[in-house]
Write a structure and sequence with these properties.
The complex is a heterodimer. Chain A is an alpha+beta fold. Chain A has 10 helices and 20 strands. The chains are: A alpha+beta, B mainly alpha.
């Protein structure tokens, strides 16, 4: 290994020599290098230069955090119940109140407050259309939200348990959605913006909308602006959907004409508060099951027809369930992924 | 120099790795304690963002534990851990860069500003003129050469391990080290 006419570059890349410089050489390696050193007077010169260069290339260490504390954090995480871990929404929440069955007379005010945005909600549960070659853009797990910024300044917010595929060529932004997302689209006359679900397609020009598409049909809600809905089997007719309106369509069939809705009920999942406005408890239960990986068992089925209005802190599953149970005046228990709501308490 | 973090006893690592695969949580803790410093330091060199690095290390160990049954027997535990950390950090940075255009500049530290030259011990140089010279000359060394050099002299990895971490061949790893030393030598006139 050791030639008397070694150059410093050859020497310093030798891993055995490196171990020797680092005092990590084996006994036989050490013996070898000491013999090499004594072999030639030039070698001791080479050795000094190589050692100096090696020391030049040392890096400073960074003070590490408290390792035991970090280990405790890891252990806590590994032993956490997978269900409870899944319920943490990854965005900050605000303190809110809950009004049960309070008739809202503030609807007009609410519309005024949201006039600056459009939300279109689409929900699908079915498998994506076959033959689509679009790449996956983002995916969320239960209890997780994600925001995506597009190059033109448009934003997309994904609700939990959602997959978004698509492609963004300058002339046409096209997306395929399974789950639920809120789109805020910057107007641009020279580019098309479409969102496809298993049930149909939505064409957008500068608007904010929510799409909810989870297998039981697609729901589109426009918070501000106008979108055009194209259902597959009647693609000649584009149905115009204006702000404050909702439309449901399923597998190429429209379920009724666009109708007015409280947009906040459909868009509030993307904010700090969940908003309900004469929303049936059945719908709320379905929504919670879609968002968090849980099954909700309601013992008293008449509860499902109760209408709920008000808002609730959109933070974690426990807070939402507790508020609902309190509003409906029932007790609940949670075992793993199953939440059981008992029958109403006697007065 | 922090010699405690440099000494890596391979036989013991591999034993711990086998125990971990068999479901021994003490082995997980032992590996965590043993490699945390080396991982944290490397992560900081890549991103300079402490919270991001701490989270990434948690992710790496949580992944290892949750997937312990399907883990292969690692040739080198340190290389496995560093490559996992590197992948995790770069993926996170890439995601943030895509999602958060506004703070794009902040997230472009890899490879442009990774491995800050100030972290080289040589920057302790007291001669002001020499230090100035170093400050201008050192940044001309490409980040990948720095990274390889760091993994060699600080983390104490072999060429095979550097190759695994940096996704290159051992021959290229050796060339990187050779090139890095040649450039350093020109700069410091050894």
């Amino acid at each position: 290994m050791a030639q008397s006419h070694l150059k410093i570059e050859d020497l310093i890349v030798d891993e055995s020599f490196q171990r020797w410089l680092d005092n990590k050489a084996s006994a036989s390696e050490e013996k070898h290098w000491i013999a090499w050193l004594q072999d030639d007077r030039d070698n001791s010169m080479l050795y000094r230069q190589a050692k100096e260069l090696w020391q030049t290339a040392q890096f400073r260490s960074v003070p590490a955090p408290n390792i035991e504390k970090e280990l405790a954090k890891l252990r806590k995480r590994l032993h956490a119940d997978p269900a409870s871990r899944a319920t943490v929404l990854k965005f900050p929440s605000l303190k809110l109140f809950w009004n049960y069955k309070q008739k809202t007379s503030k609807r007009g005010i609410r519309y005024a407050a949201i006039a600056a945005t459009i939300a279109l909600i689409i929900v699908t549960w079915n498998i994506f259309h076959s033959g689509n070659q679009l790449t996956e853009i983002a995916q969320t797990n239960y209890g997780e939200h994600k925001s995506i910024s597009l190059a033109d300044g448009s934003t997309i917010r994904l609700n939990a348990n959602t997959v978004l595929k698509g492609s963004t060529s300058p002339a046409h932004y096209q997306f395929v959605l399974k789950g639920e997302a809120c789109f805020q689209v910057v107007p641009a006359s020279n580019r098309r913006f479409t969102v496809k679900t298993v049930d149909g397609k939505i064409h957008v020009v500068g608007t904010k909308f929510v799409v909810h598409s989870r297998g039981d049909g697609t729901k589109a809600v426009v918070e501000e602006g106008v979108v055009q809905v194209e259902v597959f089997e009647s693609s000649d007719d584009l149905i115009e959907l204006k702000n404050g309106n909702i439309i449901n369509f399923h597998k190429g069939q429209i379920n009724g004409a666009p109708r007015k809705t409280n947009v906040l009920v459909h868009t509030s999942w993307a904010s700090d508060n969940l908003v309900f406005d004469e929303t049936s408890f059945e719908e709320i239960v379905q929504r919670i099951e879609e968002t968090f990986a849980v099954e909700i068992v309601v013992k008293d089925e008449s509860l499902l027809q109760e209408k709920v209005s008000g808002s609730i802190e959109n933070s974690d599953l426990r807070i939402i369930i507790e508020a609902l149970a309190k509003a409906l005046q029932v007790k609940y228990t949670q075992t793993g992924n199953t939440i059981v709501l008992e029958s109403k308490l006697e007065k | 120099m922090n010699s405690a973090q440099k000494h890596i006893d391979c036989t013991n690592d591999n034993l711990m790795w086998r125990k971990l695969k068999a479901g021994d949580e003490h082995a997980l803790a032992a590996l965590f304690r043993q490699f945390y410093g080396a991982m944290f330091d490397y992560g900081i060199k890549l991103t300079q963002r402490e919270e991001l690095v701490k989270d990434a290390i948690q992710e790496v160990f949580a992944y290892i534990w949750q997937n312990r049954k399907s883990l292969s027997q690692a040739n080198s535990v340190i290389a496995y851990l560093l490559v996992s950390l590197r992948r995790n950090l770069l993926t996170t940075l890439e995601k943030q860069k895509r999602m958060d255009k506004a703070s794009k500049e902040m997230h472009q530290e890899y490879p442009n500003t990774a491995f800050p030259i100030e972290d080289l011990m040589i920057m302790n140089e007291e001669n002001a003129a020499k230090k100035e010279k170093l400050k201008t000359a050192l940044p001309q060394i490409p980040a990948r050469l720095y990274e390889a050099l760091y993994l060699k002299t600080y983390s104490g990895l072999s060429y095979n391990e550097i190759a695994e971490v940096m996704k290159i061949t051992p021959g290229v790893a050796r060339n990187y080290i050779s090139e890095a030393f040649q450039r350093l030598r020109q700069i410091v006139d050894v």
